[in-house]
Amino acid sequence: MDNYIKDRKVDSDGWMPFTGLEDGSSLPTGDIYVPVEEWLNAREALLTRNGRLGVALRNTDDPAIIKDDLDRLDLVVLEFPKMADGRAFTQARLLRERYGFKGEIRATGDVLYDQLFYMQRCGVNGFELRDDQNASHSLKAFDEMTVTYQPASDEELPLWRRQK
């Protein structure tokens, strides 16, 4: 994928979405992520395969449904269906701050330049940009703001506690 950023660098994406267990398909090799429903229904079978594993949450899903499995997951994919819907920002913060997830949190859907900085502050470190976005140009978004006031996933202390 040409429009993928991970850890503030343009990167290639080796992950593949997989939705096939219900039709009797065999498990693929390599790095896959599955919708949360498939994870909940076929968790044990998915854990037996080789390769990294991820789960995709809709922005209406509660991240608590996978909290006990986060140590087995390398990727959580969050859906940003439209700019005005911020529920996935909350999901990212919960995954990082409440549940301590250390793997990749990936934003998909309506991922826009103007939101990259804020997504990162909430704990997102993988960004699947829309086709009309340029990944190299979008890297600038991470450095547009140099001072943050409130605490977030990327800074535990508010500005007034960081001052000397």
Give the structure's gist in a few sentences.
By secondary structure, this protein is an alpha/beta fold. It has helices at 36-47, 87-98, 113-121, 135-138, 159-162; strands at residues 4-6, 9-10, 16-17, 32-35, 53-57, 75-80, 104-109, 126-128. It is built from five helices and eight strands.
What would the principal axes of the Cα set say about the shape?
globular
Please identify which CATH superfamily we are dealing with.
Answer: Aldolase class I
Helix content: 25-40%
Main sheet properties: 8 strands, mixed
Low-confidence stretches: none
Kindly report the average pLDDT value.
Answer: 90
CATH topology: TIM Barrel
Q: What is the topology, as strand order, of the major beta sheet? A: 2-1-8-7-6-5-4-3
The portion of residues forming beta strands comes to: 15-25%
Report the total helices: 5
Structural class: alpha/beta
N- to C-terminal distance: 44 Å
CATH class: Alpha Beta
Please give the radius of gyration in angstroms. Answer: 16 Å
What is the strand tally? Answer: 8
Q: What is the number of independent domains? A: 1
The helix/strand order is: EEEEHEEHEHEHH
Which CATH architecture is right?
Alpha-Beta Barrel
